[in-house]
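are you around this afternoon, could really use another pair of eyes. what follows is a protein written twice so to speak, once as letters and once as structure tokens for the fold. i want to understand how the tokens follow from the sequence so walk me through it. anything you notice is useful, everything is just below.
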Amino acid sequence: MADWEINRPLGQCSGSGKKIESGEDYYGALVETEQGLQRRDFSGEYWEREKPPVFCFWKTKLAVPNEKRQLFVSDDMLMAFFERLANETEAEKVSFRFVLALVLMRKRRLKYDSTKTDADREIWCLRVAGDRDLVEVVNPHLDEDQIETLTSQIGQILQADL
């Protein structure tokens, strides 16, 4: 399993190098690089002007020092990330999606239905809360340490307590 480049907002636009001020809106994004998914931040001005190619993104504000941090990642946003990863086959993204599924199960947005085997892969069939359709998630057979590490890294990327 590849390690991800995890960084917290540094207050600087990855595109322009311009400083992002405390309290200012900016876009956090996951960007596909040769090293895998990496988090990048973009000022609102740069984002609107350049529309950088990203895997997924969210809009937030740079925290004001000594101010209580508000979590901004909604369950809907987690579901959107989960759905965006549906057709990915790279091991890193399959693991990312699996851990997101575990988080969404804990939040009762997904519910386990059954397991099937397809070409030596274990696939969990999950039901989206309030929906009749099933979604499938490949179980990459991560150990507890890997799940804990990925959950922590996803939380750091999204600045959320998962």
